[in-house]
Amino acid sequence: MLEAYPQNRLARIVLWSFAALVMAFLMLPTLVVVPLSFSASNLLEFPPHAYSLRWYENFFGSATWMAALRTSLILGTLTALIAVPFALLACISMNRLGGKSAASIQGVLLTPSVTPGILLAIGLFFVLAAQRLVGTLFGVLVGHVVLAVPVACIVLLPALARFDWNQVQAARSLGADWARAIGEIIVPQLRLSLLSATLMAFLTSLDESVISIFVASGRNSTMPKLMFISLRDQIDPTIAAISTLWTAIVVVVVVIVALRQKSLPSRKS
Amino acid sequence: MTATVDPALLADARRERRFFLSLSLPALFIVGLAAILPILWIIRQSFLTTGGEYTVGNYAKVLSSGLTWSALVTTLELSLGTLAICIVLGTPLALALASARPRVANLLMAFVMLPLWTAILVRTYGWLVLLRRDGLVNAALTGSGLTAEPLPLVYNFTGTLIGMVHYMLPIFLLPVYAAMRDIDPNLVRAAASMGATLGQVIRTVIMPLSAGGIFSGSVIVLIYSIGFFITPAVLGGGKVNPLSTRIERALSTFQDWGSASVLGILLLVLMALIGVMLLAARRLLAQDAVAAAHA
């Protein structure tokens, strides 16, 4: 955009140096934990003097952490399995209705993502307390699904907007009912977007901390809840090992989602 | 000419519309169950004593406490501070990315998006490691002789602000970058060919055309920032207490559901006020644009 100003080299250098500093600021906290996680010392020295896998052994050997990992993985999977079909149906509904109805539905669905987590958390805590459901997986699950639905919608709405609806019309006129049209035409063609939506819904649940902190307890504590508690008490390098593993998962998911976006134009032709 | 429509077709269209509406029901139901009902429950709870009787005592107690007002001030300081720093850091970064070649820009955007998807607790831990008294940043500062003593960078307001900016910056960047990407490069070329300096182009072409993106980004930053909990709870070290950590303390430490609910309602009111102010601001901006177009 600024190529009309080739003579302003100094300004360009200043702008890009500033941008590089800001990007370093963004990357730094994610990167710094990786070498620490392989440290042999229980001091957080940087760079570590000796390397080991003891913090990974610590993590995988701890019954508490493993129970939390199991809870988080189950929650993430269930969240994705519920949120993505709900989001797909809602997106089909919004796409076909259009206009004001679609805008109102979207407004309602987005409400949870702009509501402070702490409000959803204590509200859900009160509701669940009245039903004696605090500490159950169910309580955390509904909280995670409601946050994952808008995330899935952000992926699926544009995908449906690009979708060629004539195919559904054709199938319908040949006698396929809607269930069949959705299952055999929409779902197969949106499979890459659905995969992205599933992964992002999974990550949303995995990362969700505030609802977990208030509503999950005991055996059903999630990874973020346990990390939150241990960060408040002390800085344990086990968290560095967990963080490194977690970031590796995130990188894989982001790469998959990015590849899907790249494959979109070629899919059209 | 009036076309007569077969009533059977009309009924069909209505039935189809009802069917499409019904597809949204599962998602809407879960929002009602897990978001709207809980918020209503907070309102109900705020009028209840521990014994379950109706009272306005919770409001009297919370609103007369100095802690509440200092929590409100802290919430605003953190949110506005985060917004200001996001604008200062994010706008030039967006400009740099928008002026890069698409291939480079996409690669760099991936690096910006990685922290966005990194778990909040992972990032908070990273900042603890970096900002502690014997952390990396202080080691670099004292090692290079810039400061004689380690600086207090975490377990205080500074650390909380750093963590919040780090969380919000990629989210702020997205709409600003999108707005700048959409600017027609010919406008910049035209301005340049007529003798505008780089500064003039940025001031009179690029900034006005990305104002919408900066505004959207600012709205998102404010709305998210007022409810931040994890970052102040960990990086604030108990010394930084916005409404969110007060709510947690009322609920978890004091088992005082009434006070927690009233504080929650204050947060809701604050959100609504910010929403109304932003809508008004947008209307004013739009009027300005119309006035400018007619001038």
Automatic annotation (TrEMBL), chain A:
The keyword Membrane applies. PROSITE patterns: ABC_TM1. It comes from the Bacteria. The chain crosses the membrane at residues 12-38, 73-95, 107-130, 136-157, 194-218, 238-259. It comes from Mesorhizobium muleiense. Belongs to the binding-protein-dependent transport system permease family. The keyword DNA repair does not apply. This is Putative spermidine/putrescine transport system permease protein.
From TrEMBL, chain B:
Keywords: Cell membrane, Membrane, Transmembrane, Transmembrane helix, Transport. GO terms for cellular component: plasma membrane. CDD domains: TM_PBP2 (cd06261). Signal peptide: none annotated. Coiled coil: none annotated. Belongs to the binding-protein-dependent transport system permease family. CysTW subfamily. This is Putative spermidine/putrescine transport system permease protein/spermidine/putrescine transport system permease protein. It comes from Mesorhizobium muleiense.
